[in-house]
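User:
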Amino acid sequence: MTAELHDAVWEAVPAGAVPERFALRRAFLLGRVEPGATVLDLGCGAGEFSAELLAAGATPIAVDV
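Assistant: Predicted structure:
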């Protein structure tokens, strides 16, 4: 059941969708994380914020269902 729900949720996401207020939230996040930091991205979805953390020199640990 969980796998079916997970698949249904992701199938409903339009191609090219980005997280709500992505630029504002990214700026907030990156303003508080130093290069070299390890950051847990719990509920990472498709990993957009984890990718930004990695590009900024942090080490993200991305976890989602």
